[in-house]
Specification:
The chain is α/β, with parallel strands linked by helices and 623 residues long. It is 44% helix and 13% strand.
Length: 623
């Protein structure tokens, strides 16, 4: 933020300003926060010293401040590489609301708008300029940047460089040119999800071998993790979860296929919820419209494939639900991390079933990827299945996957709150494995369950399987229990799914000790979901009585202000800031300025109107 003004109400980066500002003062005056979270201060010091940095920080952990603060502290313009138009537009809108001279260049602008931004850039009137990698690498752009003072390069969502991830963007690999063209400009690469393999790939491909690496805790203690098996009533359970625990709140529901996305969005909308589909099969205009409604309105639920979510900055997403199994813990962590970015209570709720396991294994084996890639993907899916089927603290396992140790159970996952029962499944497992063997290792789960149950079926008789030794030996379990057992056997790698698309099961070497009775097998007990999970404390439920009236009044004022300016409500103030206003009831501008998230620009712009609302509310309840 500079000393001159652009005429549109935003301070400009006047080229005459070369003084280095104090990052702590910027944090308070611009962003309204009193202290840095570790390791933000160290990251900023590294960039201020002209060194490179690689930052791994969970969603909602404050990655953006790691480059936004030094961008304001150092003379010149910071160039931010961002993969999505929606992400850069969202961040620029938030920065402008804080009084920062920020802009973006992307395909959503007409030529006149792009030229105007180019003139501001060359005149030194911008603190931050956001661009997609494709725009940055266009002919002439790097030459144009060479004419100005670049304070730093920030490469956001740096995991897009990894060819092992579903967010891969080939243009990211070419960003190594920044080091060669601008060897003295510090660079920072940031991501919320990267295992050791991906971290090394980021370093190698971006030329960040000498960069300091900062790895924050991956723990998101405000998120409650809940995973359960799906069934025929999955959508009713989802509806009950939303109505009981998150009425009127924003959320994301992930499904594996476009067809399921459309069907689920229609079904939820038919039951009175504001539910919108989002997937690659929709037109660009449809996707944009649905995303804008999600960002700008309260209580909107987006039902989506993984095409939705990267770079979504909406802080008050109160739940992320999965109706299918993600293919890796990285994907699960990234997607669930879009809930509760404001630090307030949020839910990561998932139902998954046997068919998810079969489908993902078939997709993996039938892909045309190299065997090395398939092997890595198999390991990742196995880890995801392990997380689902485990009986201990899920958060400990989730953090352990990323190399972080949680010494005590978290107390905020379903397994901690309602420990699951286990049972000695050795004998039924031997029956199941034997049935796979006796029927020729080529049939799917439903057929095997029918054989074990002794079903009077023409198909079974035609194959002669009514005469095998395993016919009818499994009547002690019902169909649902047998399917759950097969699911867990597949999840534990004791049975493999065929690769020809028919879902047949066959034995593997690991199944031999169990089949021969040399190894005991204890499994999670299948039981009704209602007895295994406990409701999360609803965020709205923490506001009651006269506080609830004030809370809604604060949100309505925020909505009116944002609507008037055409920006998302959370760009005015986050829910956490409104909550602190409600709790502390500031009466002066000085007291309002001490509220977290109220910087000097927002204090000047919104302070009086929010103080007036608080004063009116106090008067009405004191009468």
């Amino acid at each position: 933020m500079r000393e001159t003004d652009t005429g549109d109400g935003h301070p400009s980066a006047g080229s005459e300003s070369t003084a280095i500002r104090d990052p702590q003062e910027i944090l308070h005056s611009v962003f309204g926060y009193s202290t840095f979270r570790p390791p933000q201060g160290e990251v900023i010091d590294t960039l201020m010293a002209g060194e490179d940095a690689l930052v791994l920080m969970p969603t909602g952990g404050g990655k953006s401040l790691c480059y936004q603060v030094p961008a304001l502290a150092l003379p010149g313009t910071a160039v931010v590489v961002s993969p999505l138009i929606a992400l850069m537009q969202d961040q620029v809108a938030a920065l402008r609301e804080a009084g920062v001279a920020a802009a973006f260049l992307n395909s959503s602008q007409n030529p006149g708008e792009s030229r105007a931004i180019g003139r501001q850039l060359l005149a030194g009137e911008l603190d931050l300029l956001y661009m997609a990698p494709e725009r940055l690498l266009m002919d002439g752009m790097l030459d144009r940047l060479a004419q100005i003072q670049v304070s730093l390069f920030a490469i956001d969502e740096a995991h897009c460089v990894s060819q092992w991830g579903h967010d891969f963007r080939p243009e990211y690999i070419r960003l190594e040119i920044l080091h060669r063209r601008f060897p003295h400009v510090p660079r920072i690469a940031l991501t919320a999800t990267a295992d050791e393999t991906t971290r090394q790939e980021i370093r190698r491909r971006l030329g960040l071998d000498q960069a300091r690496c900062f790895i924050s805790s991956f723990d998101r203690p405000n998120i409650r993790y809940r995973i359960d098996q799906s069934g025929s009533n999955s959508r009713e359970r989802l509806l009950r979860f939303i109505r009981d625990e998150h009425p009127g709140e924003s959320g994301i529901v992930y499904c594996l296929s476009r067809k399921k996305v459309d069907a689920m969005a229609d079904w939820l909308a038919g039951r009175g919820l504001t539910a919108l589909p989002y997937h690659a099969g929709l037109t660009g205009e449809q996707r944009q419209a649905h995303q804008e409604r999600f960002l700008n309105e309260e209580g909107v639920i987006v039902v989506a494939t993984i095409a939705f979510g990267m770079g979504i900055d909406k802080p008050n997403v109160r739940f992320v639900a999965h109706l299918n199994l993600p293919k890796s813990i990285e994907a699960y962590y990234q997607e669930t991390g879009r809930a509760g970015r404001d630090g307030l209570p949020a839910d990561a709720w998932m139902l998954y079933g046997l068919q998810d396991v079969i489908t993902l294994r078939q997709m993996m084996e039938n892909s045309e990827a190299e065997e090395q890639y398939k092997r890595i993907e198999r390991h990742k899916l196995d880890a995801m299945l392990g997380l689902c089927e485990m009986t201990d603290c899920r958060r400990q396992a989730l953090l352990g996957y990323f190399g972080e140790k949680l010494t005590e159970p978290c107390g905020n996952c379903d397994n901690c709150l309602t420990p699951p029962q286990t049972w000695d499944a050795t004998t039924p497992a031997r029956k199941a494995l034997s049935c796979v063997h006796r029927t020729g290792q080529r049939f799917g789960v439903n057929y095997l369950v029918d054989v074990l149950s002794g079903k009077d079926d023409d198909r079974i008789k035609r194959f002669g399987h009514d005469r095998v030794s395993t016919f009818g030996i499994g009547r002690e379990l019902n169909g649902s229990q047998w399917r759950g057992l097969f699911r867990q056997l597949i999840a534990r790698g004791l049975l493999a799914v065929d690769t020809n698309g028919h879902g047949g099961l066959h034995l593997v070497e690991r199944s031999r000790p169990v089949l021969q009775g040399r190894e005991k097998l204890w499994l999670r007990k299948e039981s009704p979901a209602a007895t295994r999970t406990r409701k999360s404390p609803r965020f709205a439920g923490t506001v009651s009585g006269k506080d609830a009236v004030l809370w809604e009044a604060l949100r309505e004022l925020r909505r009116q202000l944002s609507e008037r300016q055409g920006i998302p409500p959370y760009t005015v103030f986050h829910d956490a800031t409104l909550m602190e206003m409600m709790e502390k009831r500031p009466q002066t501008l000085g007291e309002m300025g001490d509220i977290s998230g109220v910087g000097s620009h927002k204090l000047e712009k919104y302070g009086d109107v929010f103080l007036s609302l608080l004063a009116r509310h106090n008067e009405s309840f004191n009468q």
